[in-house]
Amino acid sequence: MNIILLGVNSIFLFLLALAFNKRSANVRILFWPALTVKVVAGIALGLIYTYFYIEADTFYFFNDGIILANQFRGNASIYFNFLWRGDASFTFWNQLTYHDYRSLFLVKFVSILNIITGNNYWFTSIYFSLISFASAWRLLQALIKYFPAHKLAFIISCLCIPTVVFWSSGVIKESMELASLFLITSVFLKFWMKDKINVIDVLLLFCSIWVLWQVKYYYAAILLPVLLTAMVVHKLYGVIKVKKPLVEIGLWFGVFVFPMLIVSFLKPNFHADNFLNVIVKNYYIYLQYSRPDAVIHYLNLQASVMSILLNSPWALFSCLFRPFLWEVGNVFQVIASIENTILFVFTLFAIPRLKAALTSEQRLLFLSMLVYIVLLGVFLALSAPNFGTLSRFRAGFIPFYVMIICIDNPIIKGLSNFLERTFPRLVR
Hints:
By secondary structure, the chain is mainly alpha-helical. It has helices at 3-22, 31-52, 57-74, 76-84, 101-117, 121-146, 151-159, 162-167, 173-192, 199-215, 217-240, 245-263, 275-289, 305-321, 331-350, 354-358, 363-383, 387-393, 398-406, 410-422, 424-427.
């Protein structure tokens, strides 16, 4: 990467960050520190994969992106044709590591950034981290705007979860996945709060849904029905004028059946006769290639509804709180286990307010997040039971889980009071 291109990218990245910061209405004091941590996390991911792992998908994505970027420099028409079709008819197809459409989707995006950065991994990584951070920052701004009483809980859930910050930075699928999840949620909140929706919001919503479906379609297959159900029930409940929370919750689950039925026809893996088989097959593949102490073990897991239901509570618990401190095998698992222990303690303090949350004015939002967390957590833990893999995959729902256990949590209230006395700009 020549010095001119390096300078141009540095200036452009700084101007992008400056533009995001100027649009901030809350906690601007955190913008630059949080962005710096995010960028460093993306660079750290590349360094860790360089020096500690033999194989790394981040470099496979990047190297495939170089192949496509070089095609652009040699023959732009072939490059754009590949972006549109991307199949085995192209002469350089066998040079690529990835051929499945989900990975190719990311490779194509990487190639665009490689064109901009001159095939520089570290600058491409910074672009990924900036996109991921900008989406988290946008969601944080929306949450504080609509629910200002819970500012600290939102700051923690959007910016301060170590494994989420790390696994949603740099050149990996999770960066795009979490960016899409956060952008969809932020636009959804504007709809929910009847705020003004502009063209940019609509474009962000549809682009984010498209990206999420391409990169991690099973996240979209749970999130979108949950959000659609919440909106439909919210409207219906306003029409039928029933004020009983249990009726509203029952109505929610009744409506939820319909979008989930639609989803079951969108992908072969979601078909009723195939879904359980896919989960169990993936589980035993992970079991075969994982160390016995680095994987979740289930009680005779079979492709039956009863077996899945019996193992689901342990799957959810393990997804949220394991590995335990005594189960760690490396320094990365130590960090994850400390985080899991903190989550467990916060959960214990949050349990007494579960009834209050389900009867509050925002119970539909709470219920929707809870269903999304439970369904995705169980699915991931059953089909990808390796602790390392799970720590990475669960980045798609842990921010929402942290959000619901931190709101009105006595620990957070105590911390908020302390910060208000010590660092008032953070909480006011």
